[in-house]
């Protein structure tokens, strides 16, 4: 059995989940692409405006069909030179914004999964079996469901199969709106179960041993043997680190290739995805299983 040495939060450099998302490699990459894309789009639109202003007044007042039907073909060339790049840049910007928001959701999913883990960890510390082991471990499933619920808004669509957590989620939403005398929105019936099913199918968790190296760097060792003598148990105030990996659905055509790690089959057919990962660390407040000593001073009756 292994127990983690106590680590001060100042050494770990713990930051809010949104701060970790913004400063992550993917967050910085999206910010750079968005900045460059916005600049190029402004240049393309400015060029189109300048071309438009340099044309005679009679041409500017003509219809689009009349301009495109010009014998010289100049209008058609100008239209293609401006519209095609502007459309491509717009698609890239849209996919980048969705990717950036997806990165935020994955980091939030890691946060809620870790929050679930620090609730479940004491059960493992009491010797009740492995912790965050596999799909057969209730603690693992509870933490994974916590992450999946957080990721449902940015997930794709996966067939729920007519049962399981996804259908129960849809039924719960229906019951919620019914209890308040309201009709459930259309997305509850069309999307809720399929989106949660996608999140559950394409989200995995890992448990890491968190320690500080000789030079003060934080080291995360992935735990591959959660059972037996090598099982990781947690003591009071031990750091608990959970990693979340999610296949983020990419929905923008052509521009998705900029971030895609592969393709897979979903309800909408073969779609692209990007593997987004995040970790979150929280300290276990702990507990004392031993009762305090009896007081030696006699109490008044």
Q: What would you say this structure looks like, in words?
A:
The protein has 301 residues and is an alpha+beta fold. It has one domain (2-155, 202-283). It is built from 9 helices and 7 strands; from the N terminus they run E-H-H-H-H-H-H-H-H-H-E-E-E-E-E-E. A 5-stranded antiparallel β-sheet has the order 3-2-5-7-6. A two-stranded parallel sheet has the order 1-4. A hairpin with a 5-residue loop joins strand 2 and strand 3 (218-222). The radius of gyration is 27 Å and the shape is elongated. The model is unreliable at 1-11, 125-130 and 226-230 (pLDDT under 50).
Topology overview:
Layout: E1 2-3, H1 9-12, H2 17-23, H3 25-54, H4 57-60, H5 64-68, H6 74-125, H7 138-151, H8 164-179, H9 186-201, E2 203-212, E3 218-222, E4 232-233, E5 239-250, E6 262-266, E7 269-283
Parallel strand pairs: 1-4
Antiparallel strand pairs: 2-3, 2-5, 5-7, 6-7
